[in-house]
Specification:
By secondary structure, the chain is mainly alpha-helical. It has a single domain, classed as Alpha/alpha barrel (Mitochondrial carrier fold), CATH 1.50.40. 60% of the residues lie in helices and 4% in strands. It contains ten helices and three strands; from the N terminus they run H-E-E-H-H-H-H-H-H-H-H-H-E. A three-stranded antiparallel beta sheet has the order 1-2-3, with no helix packed on it. Helix 3 packs antiparallel against helix 4. It starts with a helix and ends in a 14-residue tail after the last strand.
Amino acid sequence: VSLTYVFSHPMEYAKFLIQIGHEPMPPYRTRSLLGKPVQALPNVFRYVKYIKEMDGFVGCYRGYFPKITGQICGAAAAAAVTKNFNSMESFSPIEDEMSDEEKISYLKRSLTKDIVGRTVTIIVSHPFVVISARMMAQFVGGEEIYNGFFSSVVEIYKEQGLSGFFSGLFPRWLGELTTLILSSFIIFAINNYVIHDRELKAFTTPTINFVANSLTYPFCVVSSCMAVNNCGLAAGLPPNMPIYNNWASCWVHLSRQGLLNRGSSLLIRYYHGPPRSSSLIAAN
């Protein structure tokens, strides 16, 4: 898993910059899949290449250390908190003969454990996510404020206090829990009441998870923006980004601009107008 994070981080880095609206390379003329003339933006691989050209190979790994540290700490904390749930029965409602009431009871207990675990993971890891986000966002303005891990901790506390470590927390939490609950109920319903072929059931979870993640993706964009908004970096200040009053005003503003899904497609990226808003003040 750690190797996966190592190889994927440069692309996640580029995706984050796209989410916060940084498009350093101009669009180019091309044709859509239907042959219609359109303008497109460079894909994620070209974006990573651009980052490497600007900052070198090591620069492609800005924010990697706090990100992976947060994931480890979050997973450890969740395991410690949810260990009391491990006494639940080991049987599966799909594989064993159970009544509808038993299946629903199992779902409730399993989902409760997942919600608690995911919430703990998010809360514990989020300060690390904010540090990582601000390290990466420095690419936009070329600042050197958030370079080291401990110096970043001091900087955030000095500028924003403890609340700074939880910038963008709520939309992240809301998005991830919505995904978890939505996918859990749909997968449960399909596997128990619609599909009876065991081989077909293997495709239910990845398919539903993909759909659920696509539906809640805007929360990821809003969380990324709020993690760097008005933090002293050029990436989070006008003209690159309006100053938002809260995450809801960020959502409304991006929705009006049609930008809630930016970064969701990393290979085929059509240009739909300026990625940066012409307005410097977000709607209340």
